Task: inverse folding
């Protein structure tokens, strides 16, 4: 009887915690839209299936325009990614993300997290923004972004030989050497693109899955920046 009265006296309250700062959320969506555009425009560059209207004058520059916008989007992605890394290490609002690193080295959290995704265990309490599986996935995504950026700059510098292209060739000419030739650079660029194509639907599915199973602001955290944590108070 006493325990029942105590249980009834316990109130559930939700507290808001800032998980992602405004700049972090903005850069997330910038990178998301740039990646989608880069995938679409990149496939068109490799297989230009559209034919501009025939004209006697040299004005059919559809492929050239597509390549130019592809390059612009690529440099925007590189700039946003650099700034995102800076925020991760130095922004005060990114502290929940930095705290997540400690859980990567906790095997118990790993086992319970995987068990939660397999519907055989409850999701463990985590400190920070990400569980260890999420953190390692996003870290791997950062490595893929670095690879596709380096190979993209190498391809860019082999088409444009003046200005930024010349500077890129001088600074990143080693990429072509390391990859064993320009053909290999393009192949690696293409393969990593497919890694992004696989990641996007899986990422969207898991965000929705987490939000349905653990309705604490998961899906809209990258919009509002807030995570809702349950507090029990007597």
Result:
């Amino acid at each position: 009887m006493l325990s029942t009265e105590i249980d009834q006296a316990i109130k559930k309250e939700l507290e808001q915690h800032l998980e992602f700062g405004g700049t972090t959320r903005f850069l997330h969506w910038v990178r998301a839209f740039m990646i989608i555009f880069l995938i679409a425009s990149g496939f068109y560059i490799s297989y230009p299936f559209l034919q501009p209207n025939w004209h006697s004058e040299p004005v059919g520059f559809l492929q050239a325009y597509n390549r130019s916008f592809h390059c612009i989007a690529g440099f925007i992605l590189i700039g946003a990614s650099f700034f995102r890394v800076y925020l991760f290490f130095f922004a005060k609002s990114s502290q929940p993300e930095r705290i997540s690193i400690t859980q990567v080295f906790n095997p118990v959290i790993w086992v319970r997290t995987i068990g939660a995704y397999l519907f055989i265990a409850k999701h463990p309490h985590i400190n920070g923004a990400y569980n260890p599986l999420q953190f390692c996935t996003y870290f791997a995504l950062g490595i893929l972004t670095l690879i596709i950026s380096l190979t993209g700059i190498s391809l860019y510098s082999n088409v444009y030989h003046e200005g930024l292209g010349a500077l890129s060739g001088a600074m990143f000419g080693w990429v072509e050497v390391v990859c064993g030739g320009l053909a290999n650079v393009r192949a690696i660029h293409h393969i990593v693109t497919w890694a992004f194509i696989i990641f996007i639907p899986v990422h969207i599915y898991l965000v929705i899955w987490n939000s349905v199973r653990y309705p604490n602001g998961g899906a809209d955290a990258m919009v509002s920046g807030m995570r809702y944590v349950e507090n029990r108070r007597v």
Observations:
- DSSP finds nine helices and two strands in the chain.
- The longest strand covers residues 11-18.
- The domain at 12-233 is CATH 1.20.950.20 (Fumarate Reductase Cytochrome B subunit).
- The first helix runs from residue 2 to 9.
